[in-house]
């Protein structure tokens, strides 16, 4: 995670812009934070869906929910983790290496257009579209 941000309460995030030469590097920090939260939200959402399936039965899941579970399991397999339980048992430092692995592969995807695996292709493309949207909103020229 970037070192130049601070959480103020539950709903505020402050970025400290250390870009003294005006090169626009703050967007890299925003993207790094977005990668971190994408993985956290993806896994938390998958955990909620898995719980629903366990309590109410897998037949109650929508196609979209099944897709989230499949994407998340593909991600866990790519990380070399057995499942979401293994992910949930990681401490912060151990989890950091997976966040960085995902970020490096996503960066490689941006340059080469190739996902780390066939199973992750759709998820990476969706993440790319979301990330692009976040960056466009972060462009001062596009702000209202």
Question: How do you describe this structure in short?
Answer:
With 144 residues, the protein is mostly helical.
Task: Describe the fold and architecture.
The longest helix is centred in the first third of the chain and has 31 residues, at 26-56. The protein contains five helices and two strands. The chain has helices spanning 26-56, 63-79, 84-88, 92-112, 121-138; strands spanning 5-8, 12-15. Strands 1-2 form a two-stranded antiparallel sheet. It is mainly alpha-helical and 144 residues long. Helix 1 (26-56) packs across helix 2 and helix 1 (26-56) crosses helix 5 (121-138). It is 64% helix and 6% strand. The protein is globular, with a radius of gyration of 17 Å.
What is the topology?
Layout (H helix, E strand, L loop, with lengths): L4 E4 L3 E4 L10 H31 L6 H17 L4 H5 L3 H21 L8 H18 L6
Keywords:
two-stranded antiparallel sheet, 5 helices, 144 residues, 2 strands, disordered C terminus, mainly alpha
* Global outline: globular
Strand residues, percent: 5-15%
Mean pLDDT: 76
Q: What fraction, in percent, of the residue positions are helical?
A: 55-70%
Q: Assembly state here?
A: single chain
- Strands side by side in the biggest sheet: 1-2
Main β-sheet description: 2 strands, antiparallel
Terminal CA distance: 29 Å
Structural class, please? Answer: mainly alpha
Low-confidence stretches: 139-144
Overall number of strands? 2
Individual helix count? 5
Order of helices and strands: EEHHHHH
Overall radius of gyration: 17 Å
């Amino acid at each position: 995670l970037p070192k130049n941000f601070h959480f103020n309460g539950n709903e505020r995030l402050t970025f400290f812009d250390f870009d003294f030469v005006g090169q626009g590097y703050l967007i890299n920090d925003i993207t790094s934070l977005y990668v971190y939260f994408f993985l956290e939200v993806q896994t938390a959402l998958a955990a909620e869906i898995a719980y629903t399936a366990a309590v109410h039965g897998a037949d109650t899941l929508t196609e979209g929910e099944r897709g989230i579970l499949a994407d998340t399991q593909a991600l866990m397999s790519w990380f070399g983790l057995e499942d979401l339980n293994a992910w949930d048992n990681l401490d912060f430092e151990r989890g950091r290496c997976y966040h960085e692995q995902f970020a490096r592969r996503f960066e490689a995807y941006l340059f080469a257009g190739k996902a780390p695996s066939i199973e992750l292709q759709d998820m990476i493309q969706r993440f790319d579209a979301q990330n692009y949207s976040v960056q466009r909103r972060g462009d001062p020229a596009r702000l209202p």
